[in-house]
Amino acid sequence: MTLLETLDKDLIKVPLSSAEGNSVIDELVGLYAAKYGLSDSQSAAIADKVKAREALGSTAMENGIAIPHARFSDIKKNAVMIGVSRLPVAFGGKEGTRIFFLVLASDDNPSEHIQLLSSIAKVASSQLFVRMLLSSKNADDVYRLFFE
Amino acid sequence: MKVPFGKILVYLDGSEESISALMYSILLAKSTGAELHAVYVVNTKALSELVRAHVFITQEKSEYLADLRKDSARHIRHAERLAGSKDQDIIAKAIEGSPAFVIQDYIKANDIDLLAIGPVNAIRSRRDELTSENDRMMRTVPCQVLIVRDDSGIWEQFEG
Questions:
Q1: Cβ of A80 under 8 Å from any chain B Cβ?
Q2: Which single residue of A76, A147, B53, B137 could bond A121 by disulfide (Cβ 3.0 to 4.6 Å)?
Q3: Tally of structural domains, chain A
Q4: The domain that contains B118 carries what CATH number?
Q5: Could you tell me if residue B1 is inside a domain?
């Protein structure tokens, strides 16, 4: 599945309410947990794995975007959560991060996971696209941007 | 280039859709006598780009590279098994690089007449960054392209 096929409006949050890095991860994983009816402990286990990966090296890029991610043996379908914060959040980069793409990937198909991350990194390198993402007012705006 | 075709190449990317393209190509080669090739591309270009963009740490790149190599070996074996089950010869290999460029070079080096790929993006975007490898190949390869849809009962027909 490509990034476009993976995007889900229910997994986009604008604006994020969290002001701290780990809370942003919790908030975005919370979207996934709500969508798929996960328990609190399942949700916490997913968030912990993403935080553990992030602790090895921040995925924050120079342009205010971060792509936290982790792989799971019990996730069969890749998922991408998108969050846009009104204010910069400290996420390990030189500057604060305002746009988050959190990727939960299945262990089953590493090739598809690479393609997904690669597509996100490519759109994230477009200054115009980043500006448009930052000016999005809600999940619909973000979702629409990818299909224009 | 031979018309209609003497050599078919299937692009394998680890997806179920590319397995469907492979099955279809095996049946096609069998019924036409065409020579059949299959290539799985280990996308090392994307891995390097992800490290450069700080999405991957070096350790992660090595882990993914090992996983992709394992995945490619598994798919090559599977391709050989599937072709063998229909008594069809196949030249199957894994190559590392950028998928669209690897496939283009392979087509030129081996005089391939027809490239078979899985479906292109069902959802369209004008954003170039979101172009899939299948889309890119469809637009750039120097031979005819067969897009194999995954919804036509190929698996049943192959196994039947």
A1: no
A2: B53
A3: 1
A4: 3.40.50.620
A5: no
Q: Do A111 and B123 touch (CB under 8 A)?
A: no
Size of interface A-B (CB pairs under 8 A): 90
Measured at the CA of B100, the angle between CA B98 and CA B106, to 5 degrees, comes to 95
**C-alpha–C-alpha distance, residues A100 and A77, integer Å:** 20
* Cβ-Cβ contacts under 8 Å, A113 against chain B: 64
Query: Shortest CA distance to A121 belongs to which of A50, A51, A36, A62?
Result: A62
Beta bridge partners of A87: none
Q: Model confidence over A78-113: pLDDT tens digits?
A: 999 999 999 999 999 888 999 999 999 998 888 889
Contact B68 A111 (CB under 8 A): yes
Tell which A residues from 98 to 137 touch B, by Cβ distance under 8 Å: 109-115, 117-126, 129
Q: Three-state DSSP class for B144? A: strand
State the residue range of the domain holding B120: 7-159
Indicate yes or no: pTM above 0.95. no
Using CA atoms, how far apart are residues A50 and A53, in angstroms rounded to an integer?
5
Domain of residue A137 covers 3-147
For A16-64, the pLDDT digits (tens) are: 999 999 999 999 999 999 999 999 999 999 999 999 999 999 999 988 9
Using an 8 Å CB-CB cutoff, list chain A residues near B60.
56
Quickly count: other Cβ atoms within 10 Å of residue B59's Cβ: 10
C-alpha closest to that of A50 among A32, A62, A63: A32
CATH number at A37 reads 3.40.930.10
Q: Give residue ranges of B with CB < 8 Å to any A CB.
A: 13-15, 43, 46-47, 49-50, 53-57, 59-60, 64, 67-68, 71, 121-127, 129-130, 132-133
Question: Is B121–A112 a contact, with Cβ atoms under 8 angstroms apart?
Answer: no
Nearest-CA distance B139 → chain A (Å): 17
Peptide bond into B99 cis (omega under 30): no
